[in-house]
Write a structure and sequence with these properties.
Largest sheet: 4 strands, parallel
Number of strands: 14
Structural class: alpha/beta
Helix content: 40-55%
Number of helices: 12
Shape: globular
Distance between the termini: 59 Å
Order of helices and strands: HEEEHEEEHEHEHHEEHEEHEHHEHH
Length: about 300
Amino acid sequence: MIIIKVIYTGCLVLYFALLPPPAFARTVSDQLGREVKIPENPQRLVTLAASLTEIVFALNQEHRLVGVEQFSNYPAAAENLPKVGSYISPDVERIVTLRPDLCLAIKDGNPRHRVEWLESLGIPVYAVDPRNLEGVIATVYEIGHLLNAGDQAEALAKDLFQRRQHIISLVGRSVHRPRVFLQIGISPIVSAGSHTFLDELITTAGGVNLTAGKVPYPRFSQEQVLALQPEVIIITSMTRGEVFERVKAFWHQWSTLPAARDNRIYLVDSDIVDRPSPRIFAGLEALFGLLHPELAGGLQ
């Protein structure tokens, strides 16, 4: 089996090497500070993260996509595109067969050695590293210009910026910032510390993140959560369905918990709060509506 795989990989490398080389017309610097030679007008694009797939669709450039990361499920049309493995384990052999002239990667997830492998085969890889909402806007802008969709990128970036500023303005009208416990892990209980997207979403939406601190994703016992006395509990996890509802029901049984007493325990789709794509601004608006229902009318 190992011998067969080596032969197969070698054939793919030879096949790709015999193809006419792409016309690398410009050199750009990606968000990791690496110089990348890319075509003037990339036509065959592979995205190595679902968030990047969403950005390409949001820019109306999906006609360039020849392959996407396996969890690319939004919009619905993305599910029909060829899959190239998960973001933590991209399938290099599969990517090679799709003959991309550009790959989009993300630092937080895509293994560096896979990126270097692709580059050794002559496939340019542009890497992004959005760390906050402003970083998402910048990434939208950069990818748009990479794909010669500058007008779309500028319009989308402006819209996202204005939506963020509108939330900040609405939060300024609030008289109280509720104490929030956000649960992203079920067993064990995991939350989000400072300098994470989730912490920024909570604070920008007008809440107080009870788990802010140096540890990015701290763990908690049931007793510790109860001691924090959150006024709002947000449960967002890739584990959904019956398990999702069971976790919500578990917290509701504690009558001494303010969030349970006031019926403020909510389930939120993790895709709109943990993917650094334009939809994260929909996540911000959703959180604002849950934290400040008295002001939610201002979103319309």
